[in-house]
From TrEMBL:
<keyword id="KW-0560">Oxidoreductase</keyword>
<feature type="domain" description="6-phosphogluconate dehydrogenase NADP-binding">
    <location>
        <begin position="10"/>
        <end position="166"/>
    </location>
</feature>
<dbReference type="Pfam" id="PF03446">
    <property type="entry name" value="NAD_binding_2"/>
</dbReference>
<dbReference type="InterPro" id="IPR036291">
    <property type="entry name" value="NAD(P)-bd_dom_sf"/>
</dbReference>
<dbReference type="InterPro" id="IPR006115">
    <property type="entry name" value="6PGDH_NADP-bd"/>
</dbReference>
<dbReference type="InterPro" id="IPR013328">
    <property type="entry name" value="6PGD_dom2"/>
</dbReference>
<dbReference type="GO" id="GO:0016491">
    <property type="term" value="F:oxidoreductase activity"/>
</dbReference>
<feature type="domain" description="NADPH-dependent reductive aminase-like C-terminal">
    <location>
        <begin position="169"/>
        <end position="293"/>
    </location>
</feature>
<dbReference type="InterPro" id="IPR015815">
    <property type="entry name" value="HIBADH-related"/>
</dbReference>
<dbReference type="InterPro" id="IPR048666">
    <property type="entry name" value="RedAm-like_C"/>
</dbReference>
<comment type="similarity">
    <text>Belongs to the HIBADH-related family.</text>
</comment>
<dbReference type="InterPro" id="IPR051265">
    <property type="entry name" value="HIBADH-related_NP60_sf"/>
</dbReference>
<dbReference type="Pfam" id="PF21761">
    <property type="entry name" value="RedAm-like_C"/>
</dbReference>
<dbReference type="GO" id="GO:0050661">
    <property type="term" value="F:NADP binding"/>
</dbReference>
<protein>
    <submittedName>
        <fullName>6-phosphogluconate dehydrogenase</fullName>
    </submittedName>
</protein>
């Protein structure tokens, strides 16, 4: 590439599907981009597009003011960043971790970075790799606001929306985990629904439009239940837990009549019964959040 943008040079560590997409978006925006991956050979397409392929992580981080690390988990990120040569080379530079992991691991790495004179932001990507560089991408960030503001223009070259959730380093990971919780439990419910529908002779394609209808009920419920959860109101006027538990029992019954593991719904029903047992049967299901939080 002959001319580069005014943005700082960026290094991307990790060339899995997401790391490759991130590096590709920086390159497409004209950013001088250096890339490195633990296993060699994953950088060819990107070097053909103008990325500089580094032969070591130390060389890679030395090439740029800003390093974005996106690997499988924080343990893998730490295995790269905390090597003595890499840590030395990062001193005075900034790392943005877009690696998914727990809030505590984000805080631990941030503490380590501070001890080594490295600027550190933790982020989470809430959309799949093909969304990067498009308006659909969703990025969450946490860490020092001045550092975020300094690198926001270059991070925004990755497309989509970027939200700074606060200075507390664990916040991006907390949002990430909570949202993954919503996503995967919903997906488990959907997989289970497909299994019992099929057992009753209904195809997944037949069910899909109606499943979409059910999913569409959720967004306004999230809003309404958020107010209940934060204010402790738990109104069950429309659908009290007692009524919900009875429909859950039907799902378990049909599932088990076909020999299909009803574990997910059994635990949902168990939770509803616990709420009822504690005397909250007239409340809305979100009362479960409070019951779950009791130790
Ligand atoms: N893919 C998506 O659509 C998506 C969406 C949202 C968030 N994310 C998040 O983005 C991150 C990266 O995901 P991904 O899809 O690119 O692929 P991934 O399979 O989660 O991670 C692959 C990357 O991790 C590296 N890695 C694994 N163990 C390592 C170790 N011990 N030391 C150094 N590097 C190691 C791999 O290097 P090698 O090639 O050497 O194995 C490769 O670069 C993850 O945290 C994921 O949760 C991904």
């Amino acid at each position: 590439m002959s001319s580069y943008s005014n943005h700082p040079a960026v290094t991307v560590l990790g060339l899995g599907p997401m790391g490759r997409s991130l590096a590709g978006a920086f390159l497409a925006a004209g950013v001088r981009t250096t890339i490195w991956n633990r296993t060699p050979g994953k950088d060819r397409e990107l070097t053909a597009l103008g990325a500089a392929g580094a032969t070591s992580a130390e060389e890679a981080v030395s090439a740029s003011e800003l390093t974005v690390v996106c690997v499988v988990n924080q343990q893998a990120a730490d295995a790269i960043l905390r090597r003595a040569g890499v840590a030395r080379a990062l001193k005075g530079r900034t790392v943005v971790s877009l690696t998914a992991d727990t809030p505590q691991r984000a805080r631990d790495t941030a503490r380590w970075a501070a001890e080594h004179g490295i600027g550190y932001l933790d982020g989470a990507i809430m959309t799949p790799a093909p969304s990067i560089g498009t308006p659909e991408a969703v990025f969450l960030h946490s860490g020092p606001r001045d550092l975020y503001e300094r690198y926001r223009p270059v991070l925004e070259l990755l497309g989509g929306t970027h939200t700074h959730l606060g200075e507390e380093l664990g916040r991006a990971a907390t949002f990430d985990l909570a949202l993954l919780d919503v996503f995967w439990t919903a997906m488990a419910g959907y997989a289970h629904a497909v299994a019992i529908a099929r057992a009753e002779g209904v195809t997944a394609r037949e069910l899909a439009p109606f499943a979409q209808g059910i999913a569409a009920i959720l967004p306004p419920l999230f809003e309404e239940f958020a107010a209940d959860a934060d204010d402790g109101t738990y109104s069950g006027e429309i659908n009290p837990v007692t009524s919900a538990a009875s429909t859950m029992a039907h799902v378990v019954e049909v599932s088990e009549s076909h020999g299909i593991d009803a574990g997910v719904m059994r635990s949902v029903e168990g939770l509803a019964r616990r709420v009822i047992g504690l005397g909250h049967g007239g409340d809305g299901f979100i009362r479960a959040a409070e019951v779950l939080g009791r130790h």
